[in-house]
């Protein structure tokens, strides 16, 4: 009888340790996945950038669509690039700005220049909005 109780206890212990090991492994892999996802995105969401510009510049739907496409093209070009080692980052940013500027009216272009100087193109919230 004692041998059967010991065997059940050991089996339960092995089962519990296996479950615990699976939970720890799952949590670790999830952490690695989240970290890799954050690094792959490398920056703030483009939707926030577009909403900042829409608010600041009072963009039309057509302008928003064209700007989203310009941002998507630029992001595709950055996929394999590490920003901290990329001398071309500033050049790519200038190219994006050059693609966006002609889409704007003259008054929007003036405000766009102010937005760029202030820095919301990095994903800051527009005035009056919480992140």
Tell me about this structure.
The protein is an all-alpha fold and 131 residues long. It has 2 domains: 1-41; 46-122. Helix content is 73%, strand content 0%. The chain has 5 helices and no strands. It has helices spanning 2-41, 46-57, 61-78, 89-100, 106-118. The longest helix is centred in the first third of the chain and has 40 residues, at 2-41. The radius of gyration is 25 Å and the shape is rod-shaped.
Helix-and-strand structural type: mainly alpha
User: What is the alpha-carbon Rg in Å?
Assistant: 25 Å
**Helicity level:** over 70%
- Average pLDDT over all residues: 75
Could you name the key traits of this structure?
single chain; 131 residues; mainly alpha; 2 domains; 5 helices; rod-shaped; disordered C terminus
In short:
This protein is mainly α. Helices cover 73% and strands 0% of the residues.
Strand and helix layout:
Layout: H1 2-41, H2 46-57, H3 61-78, H4 89-100, H5 106-118
